Please model this.
Amino acid sequence: MPASERFTETLYSAYGQTLSVDEKLYEERSEHQHLLIFRNALFGTVLVLDGVVQTTEKDEFIYHEMMTHVPLLAHGAARRVLIIGGGDGGILREVCKHRNVEHITQVEIDPAVVELSKQYLPKHSNGAFDDPRLNLIIGDGYRFVQETDERFDVIISDSTDPEGPAQVLFSSPFYSGCKRSLRPGGIFVAQNGVAFMQTDELLTSAQRLGPLFADCSFYLAAVPTYAGGQMAFAWASDDAKLRQVDIDTLVKRWRETAIKSCYYTPEIHRASFALPQYLRDLQL
Ligand code: SAM
Model:
């Protein structure tokens, strides 16, 4: 297949996954980033921002279910949720499935991602952008958490990698702003890169979150198009018990949601916090 009909990810200079571009659907540079959307025979529609695969139709459920149900089920009584980034709508879709959630604020810097995802990846949001509980703010998540007087039970930072507009979302001031914006008993989670490939990013996040929260760690899930191993999700709260909710409680809470998942189970929830020795050796 001619090179021009293939996309090679540029996240790593010495390594990259390649996907066939079976149909290019959209390519433009917005005010904030380069957007590329194409169809691939194996993964369906693929969204790429600044040369990095963000999400695909075929495997998005793994990431969005784990980023959402793990903190919400661990919390057990979340009513107010903040989503930073997440312009494709996948996190929002999963949060909206929790009937007990009363209010969702989402702060996304690039309106083009929202509009193009609605058009080309409609199943990601699946109508969630019309949910009456949602307050969608087009803006910088970093600035929002510094300035807001809203308080949240769960904050989910679903950002691009720490380059470009998302660099600030991995900074100590951002984490301080999230800490300030959490209610007592609140939980912060964030996409933190592929553990094996971006180990330094996990280390940096642990060093920055550690002084702010009583309990910090990571949980893992393998997402095929986040190439190079298991995706790491940063976890932070002020109560270590939130990370160790027993299986019977998780099963009960999960049953009460009546949510039908494709990846998340209470057993997977618990197991996802089991870190491999090379990460434990980093005292993460
Ligand atoms: N699941 C993907 C991943 O793990 O890489 C992320 C998906 S989502 C498309 C990432 C979103 O973060 C993008 O829509 C991007 O515009 C948004 N974003 C980046 N920096 C931001 C900022 N400072 N404030 C708010 N949203 C931001």
In short: The longest strand covers residues 182-194. Residues 32, 54-55, 63, 84-88, 107-110, 113, 140-142, 158-160, 165-166, 168-169, 191 surround S-adenosylmethionine (CB under 6 Å). The chain has a mean pLDDT of 97.
